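Deviation from plan, reported transparently: succinic acid complex.
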Amino acid sequence: MSRNFDVIVVGSGIAGLSFALQVASAGRSVAILTKKNRADSNTNYAQGGIACVTAQNDDFKSHLKDTLEAGDGLCDAVSVEEIINEGPARVKELIEIGVHFSQLEDGSPSLGREGGHSRRRVLHVQDITGKAIESALLRATARNNHITVLEHFFAIDLITQNKLTKSGFAVRNDGDGVIGLYALDVLKGRVEVFRAPVVMLTTGGLGQVYQFTTNPDIATGDGIAMAYRAGVEVANMEFVQFHPTSLYSSTNDRFLISEAVRGEGAILRNADRRPFMKHHHPLADLAPRDIVARAIDSEMKQSGARHLWLDITGHPEEVLQSRFPNIFEVCARHGINMATDLIPVVPAAHYLCGGVRTNLSAETSLPGLYACGEVACTGLHGANRLASNSLLEAVVMAHRGSLAVTDYLKKHQPESVALPEWVDGDAEDSDERVVLSHNWDELRRTMWDYVGIVRTTKRLERARARIQNLRNEIYDYYWNFKVEPRLLELRNLIEVADLIVQCALRRKESRGLHYTLDYPEKLPEATNTTVLKREL
Ligand code: SIN
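Because the crystal trials were delayed, the predicted structure below was used instead.
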């Protein structure tokens, strides 16, 4: 028995919800599968905002230039231009569905500034922009009766014409296409078959592959891993962005201190409490993120300090509280008053610039499979994403994807081929819990220590060997045991960790977010690192 829809969306962040609303408005039946609650998405954690040209003193050319500069020669100029140019129309739609961006007293938009931007252009809702957009989209989704939101459904793998069962892998050929997917009903502990001619991946990023990340627990690279296993092209996985300023704590938790705080005048200070960013870049504390994160890493290594400091003292408390209510409150919970105390900060894994390769219609290399948002690689970010360009990309590409999918559905009916039920393994092992939690920690530590801000070939090779061991152990559980979310997430994390290392080993230069001591120079020609799994 399968459940049938026109379109299945995996993930319920800004990309998935915007896309679903637009496809549903064309009368199509849409299922949104989300592995936790509908509001558990990366979008909710986006503080900074959405970069978009709206100010009188701004123009598309300047946004384009800043994006290309941050991307360090690897952006696709056409993608950059088209995505930036479409921003204002998509932002207008967000306002129409009820997103109230912060305004100045005269009613004009309050625009934030962040690293790499030559001027103020980031629309925001105080420091909870993602949450405000997500709530508005969820309200609109709830009103649409073509959309079914299925919470606690964990998408496991795509079903394509050449991959029909848990174990029935085959090499892709040109006739392949999406038929549906398997998803675990987490509450019932049972795998269900979903049939649809279109699957849209909007699963967000993979920050949980690193020991320290600003991302929520759900960011386990699920969509990229699924796509890769189905033989879909994945690109530029080595470009993992480390946010320079997360709140230091003695646990693994890393709360984001938005770059917008530096946009309002905060400066970084080293262990001796001296400013240092002016020695690294003309934009000093507002340099692109790769440069700031590397400068912090180098200061920390030189001094042996566990963290550096962010200083926004001297700004009136009521101003900080009104502009950054969320950050102010979290700092206060840690005993820090932003107006009078320095904030202890460290870099943390934040955003993946690579992902499932798509064109500007969100189409992947597999017919019927689309990807949008952080899971996708459109060429906008190149080797380093410009701050707050991600929400922009998500809304623009969701819109473009919806147009492409509506067109695709006119020509493609659901496949009538019978889809086999999932067969779970029945093995049991009292060590399973211990092995899963050990491997989870080992993977994240390995990635942090060997595949972090500064890399070497030797460290990457060490990481690769360890990931291979972890993979063998986890696949034993996957094949022979009943699947459950923690196992499925770890299987995906191992897949994406391996992809990051594979891509990093293939890049024989330092560019943007990929910095290796073995190849410190940039090659004259910028090329993408593409990976395609041929032997499935
Ligand atoms: C931030 O607020 O610093 C993060 C925004 C982003 O990652 O674009």
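The chain has a mean pLDDT of 94. We consider this an acceptable substitute for the interim report.
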